[in-house]
């Protein structure tokens, strides 16, 4: 029974990659899995539930592949390097197409949205762990909203991956800009005590103004 469920999940992932969300019918998934169509409903109840499980499992497996790389990151620049590697490998493996299909489907299908959100949260958790570690010694560490920053970075990575599908040069230029910003972060970390105090004071004024 477990083998049948796994085959259906694998079949759903293959269909999403080759046919897109519109082609992910019970019949198509069952055919890809090599099982009877009725087993989709027996094991998962609905096609949407099967797609939700497939989304979660596919993301878990991809995150696991990158966990060691995230753990080795020691700077913003290195995090961006991982992001660049991720963009190339995910596009080559077809996972980027699956992500695009699920993100699009989640906009109009509230049954898919929780699973897609949970999948994205897995990436965000990894990035948040990295950012928390590498910003801990920053002179402005107490002013950094690490969870919020992790979501911004994750959204940027995902956005650049999708953008790269229609404009590789544009995505590359955007990533190059992020890399220049990473250099500025390293410069901030090397500031002397007087410059650090001035920077902290400026950031606090910005925070106060934004809160009004």
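-> sequence recovered:
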């Amino acid at each position: 029974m477990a083998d049948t469920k796994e085959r259906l999940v694998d079949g759903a992932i293959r269909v999403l990659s080759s046919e897109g969300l519109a082609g992910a019918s019970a019949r198509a998934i069952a055919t890809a899995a090599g099982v009877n169509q009725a087993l989709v409903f027996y094991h998962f109840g609905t096609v949407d539930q099967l797609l939700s499980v497939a989304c979660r499992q596919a993301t878990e497996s991809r995150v696991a592949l990158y966990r060691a790389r995230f753990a080795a990151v020691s700077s913003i620049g290195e995090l961006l390097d991982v992001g660049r590697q991720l963009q190339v490998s995910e596009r080559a493996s077809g996972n980027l197409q699956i992500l695009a299909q699920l993100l699009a489907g989640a906009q109009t299908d509230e049954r898919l949205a929780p699973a897609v959100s949970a999948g994205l949260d897995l990436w965000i958790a990894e990035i948040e762990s990295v950012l928390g570690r590498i910003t801990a010694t920053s002179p402005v560490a107490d002013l950094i909203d690490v969870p919020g920053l992790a979501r911004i970075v994750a959204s940027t990575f995902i956005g650049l991956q999708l953008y790269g599908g229609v404009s590789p040069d544009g995505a590359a230029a955007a990533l190059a800009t992020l890399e220049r910003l990473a250099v500025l972060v390293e410069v901030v970390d090397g500031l002397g005590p007087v410059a650090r105090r001035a920077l902290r004071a400026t950031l606090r004024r910005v925070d106060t103004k934004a809160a009004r």
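The chain has ten helices and no strands.
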